[in-house]
Amino acid sequence: MKEKYINLFTDFGFKKAFGEEASKEHLISFLNTLLPERHQIEELQFCNNEYQGATALDRKAIFDLNCVSATGEYFIVELQKAKQNFFKDRSVFYATFPIQQQAQRGDWDFRLSAVYTIGILDFVFDDEDNAQRDEVIHRVQLKNQHHQVFYDKLTFIYLTLPNFRKTEDQLDTLQDKWFFLFRHLHELDDIPPRLREKVFLSLFEKASIARFEPEERQAYESSLKYYRDLKNVIDTAREEGREEGRAEGKEESEQIGYQKARAESVMKMLGHGIPEAEVAKLLDLTLEDIQELTRGRSNDE
């Protein structure tokens, strides 16, 4: 049976539900469940989601959503569908752009507004200890050697949504309900009784595939296929890398196996029609890396 509602982990679905002027209330409601009382949002505006570097040679950053509240806080919201190398490094790099944007010409006392980077993840971190691995929310700030917050205006919030396992009957908070929808909206046939609040009724209306114009439906289907292909390629490549490494029984061989699998994943993703720039972003490679890997595979064949 065809899905009735969109998958929020597709690019189209995420932008439809949270990235349009008409769906701004959904984004505000969702973000407020993650923010401290002092930074609760009443109104926000969307900003350009593409930042150029300081010079033509600098690397640019492209965010899924980039917005600023009426009181001046900046929010980067990133949807991450699959694991990628140096993901945390990328988050820190992206956070520098709204920080630099606040610089003022002439006399300036360097006072900054708060910056929040929110990562909505369709995977879990592998490098957390056992006590943290099952947590849904990972909130990160700069701290000193005494574990005291050194700077409270830069916050990273990562949501490892595969760890959210509550059922409909267990949804007590607004945050629970948003997390549940990220995981299960596309599986629902009707609106659950606990989700009949105004903001969610509005979301279900926006998310109803039957309401889409033909071009919207086509765009969503393409986005859904891309999401499914991407997850399959990434998951397969990583498993092949682990298996090859285990077969060799050595850390160095495991790394070699992973590198081979990564090259294979590049070829598969390109074969699925995923653009080189997107492949580079997902695997944290440069376009030169992509071209070198494809040349190497061609030579091997």
TrEMBL record:
Sequence segments annotated as region (Disordered): 239-258
InterPro entries assigned: RpnA
Comp. bias (Basic and acidic residues): 239-253
Pfam families: PDDEXK_2
Protein name: Rpn family recombination-promoting nuclease/putative transposase
